[in-house]
Write a structure and sequence with these properties.
single chain, globular, about 90 residues, alpha+beta
C-alpha cells in the first residue's frame, strides 16, 4: 500500500470555516517585538504569516491542534479557542 505524504493527508481533511475567527492576535506590537516568531514555524498548515509588517491569521484551514498557543506561551499574545459547534476541521482517515 502506498504511503501518503503529510500534504496528501492534510488534503483529505474537510473544513467548514466560520465567519469569525477562533484565533486572534491580542497585540500586533507585541508580535513585532517577538524575536522567534514561533507561531509561524510551528503551525503545520501555515496559519500565521507575516504580511506588511504584521502577523496575519488564516484561520480557515486551522487544524485545531493547539501548537500555536503552546509556542506563544511566553508572550501570551494569542487568543485561542475551538470554533463554534459545526465549524472547523473535519478529520478524515487516510
Amino acid at each position: 500500500m502506498k504511503k501518503l505524504t503529510l500534504e496528501q493527508k492534510l488534503f483529505l481533511n474537510g473544513f467548514r470555516p466560520d465567519r469569525e475567527s477562533h484565533l486572534a492576535i491580542i497585540d500586533q506590537e507585541k508580535c513585532r517585538k517577538c524575536e522567534l516568531r514561533q507561531c509561524t514555524y510551528i503551525c503545520p498548515v501555515n496559519t500565521y504569516r507575516w504580511e506588511n509588517d504584521q502577523i496575519t491569521v488564516f484561520f480557515e484551514g486551522c487544524l485545531e491542534c493547539g501548537a500555536c498557543r503552546i509556542a506563544c506561551q511566553d508572550c501570551q499574545n494569542l487568543e485561542w479557542r475551538y470554533p463554534r459547534g459545526g465549524f472547523g476541521v473535519n478529520y478524515r482517515t487516510g
